[in-house]
Every structure is written in structure tokens, then in C-alpha cells.
Amino acid sequence: MSESFRQFLRALPDFPEVLPDFDPETAPEDPAELFRQWLAEALAAGVPQPNACSLATADGQGRPSSRMLILKDIDADGWHFATSRESRKGLELGANPNAAMNFFWQQQGRQVRVAGDVVELSAEASAADWQARPGADGSENPAWQLYALRPRELEFWQARHDRRHIRHRYGPR
Prior knowledge:
The chain has 173 residues and is of the alpha+beta class. The chain has one domain (27-170): Electron Transport, Fmn-binding Protein, Chain A (Pnp Oxidase, Chain A, Roll). Helix content is 24%, strand content 36%. The chain is built from four helices and eight strands. It has helices at 2-11, 31-44, 88-95, 123-132; strands at 52-58, 64-70, 73-75, 78-84, 98-105, 110-120, 144-158, 166-170. A hairpin with a 4-residue loop joins strand 5 (98-105) and strand 6 (110-120). It is globular. The N and C termini lie far apart (41 Å).
């Protein structure tokens, strides 16, 4: 049973026949600019919800967990996301303010990894984010927190059919 499942997994299709090209030599110096370009290309290619990413956190003992969420913004403060301070990720960030995001756009054979320190943004910014959520009813949510991940490292990964995938890193190697 195990071998047949392994064979089943190996036989699954991976990337589309046509993949975008990427030359790291032409990448902008600002990784946020490259991310915005890739996000726009993912949107143009019909990738559903290209702003969704996996966020990995760890508790105070280093035990990891991850979940999907939505990128809210990128600015000088970092890469924004939000959650309740009382949620599992909120509690983990309180104990260990480090995280990693991973965006995956299968239709383009691309992923972007972002890792770094996480800081809480202002109460005003958090309240404004809560109010801007779909279905906001005007109520307050004092546990709602807008965070910014401040990248230490970023990696842009482009799949290639010859398996010589292209990796372009910003930050320490």
C-alpha cells in the first residue's frame, strides 16, 4: 500500500507546460518591488487569491505551526497580516516574535519565502484593519492586532522543467 501511494504521489502533475522565465540579474534591488511584479503576474495568469500565504510561527518552546492567511500590505514597517492576539498564532507571536511566510503560485511554478521578526503595529492601525474587514458591523475588537513581518531574508523561487530551479535571495545566505 505504501509503495503504491508513493507511486501515486510521484505521478501527480506538477507545473504547467509553459512557465514564466526569470533572470535574477534583472531583478530590482527592492524585494518588495519584485514581489509586487510577481503578484501582478500571478493575478494576470488567473492565480486565485495570489495574496494568500502560509504563515509559520513557533511557540516559546520552538514547536512550529502554520496556517493560511492573507497579506494585507507591504510598506516600510514590513509585510502586514492580522489576527486576534488570543488566537494560537497571536499567542505564539507573543512568546516568539519570529515568523515565515510562503506564497505559492502553482500555475506559474513560483514561490516566495519571507522570514524575519514580527512587530505589533499601532492600536489605531489594528482598529482600522478590523473595520475594513468584509462584514464589519462597526463593533470594536480590542484583541484584533495588525502585525508586520520585517524580513531578514527573502527568496524568490522559479521552477524549471529541467529541475534546475532558479533561486534569488535577498538577505543573509
